[in-house]
Amino acid sequence: xxxxxxxxxxxxxxxxxxxxxxxxxxxxxxxxxxxxxxxxxxxxxxxxxxxxxxxxxxxxxxxxxxxxxxxxxxxxxxxxxxxxxxxxxxxxxxxxxxxxxxxxxxxxxxxxxxxxxxxxxxxxxxxxxxxxxxxxxxxxxxxxxx
Amino acid sequence: xxxxxxxxxxxxxxxxxxxxxxxxxxxxxxxxxxxxxxxxxxxxxxxxxxxxxxxxxxxxxxxxxxxxxxxxxxxxxxxxxxxxxxxxxxxxxxxxxxxxxxxxxxxxxxxxxxxxxxxxxxxxxxxxxxxxxxxxxxxxxxxxxx
DNA sequence: TCTTGACCTGAAGTCAGGTTTAGGTTATAC
DNA sequence: GTATAACCTAAACCTGACTTCAGGTCAAGA
Lengths: 146, 146
Known about the structure:
The structure is a homodimer of 146-residue chains.
Chain A: H1 4-11, H2 15-23, E1 31-33, E2 36-38, H3 41-55, H4 60-72, H5 77-118, H6 122-127, H7 134-144
Antiparallel strand pairs in A: 1-2
Chain A binds a DNA duplex (30 and 30 nucleotides) through helix 2.
């Protein structure tokens, strides 16, 4: 059992944020002794999941929904699995999107490298988009496919 | 040359958002004729970069900084290259982080698949973290490395 | 016992990134 | 030439995710 201050240190999350999460219903079964929150392993695991889901851009109210399903017990196993399957697709798509963003950034790095060499963008602007050298053409194409 | 409405359709961005971007200084040299905004190829390319940088989580005010460098001309080529090199590192880190999140999600999918089969989490809780089967152990380890 | 630090609450404040509203101007089609 | 659709501004409003504040309680050590 941990106090809010200990959990705050463990996860490097402000105490105010933990209280906010509690207020928003992210710890459905959180115990208290004479008013003071007592975090068990259950809440620690919940917090790991919260951190994970927040990284995927999920909103607090949707994380709350998941925590409520956890509190409901074994009747929600399939709902919870489907929840993660949906999230999986979203994160996979996010990674694909980021890879394309990375191609765009790589292209821009190359672009400014050339501009530095040339002292201007004239030659570059004549190359784009059809006369790019092989070394960068693939990156450009991936970055600009919609 | 395009009107704000045409650009809105091209990019599927509300007109109000384009005006907001303009107010925040994201189109430094944007022309007007009798008060009406005239978007040129320059602003279209700017908007492509804005969309890209927004996907990396960059704030409007930092995107504005970049656009100002663009408006300054050839003296800022190296600054702009370095800007993209920094962003590249951040996005690469983001992708690595997302891959670990994906491992966590894969683990959770497996976990609930087992729980559905078993009808409870008892067997699972005895397995975690040291007696996991090989098929999932790697995923678990990657998901939990800090 | 008293003080000090960690805890508690509800309400207000903050910040980013827009969106909505109200009131007005301009361009285009009939 | 007049309707109406698309444009304009400033300012207020909204949402999510916190943070800060004011005022109060609780537990442990000197």
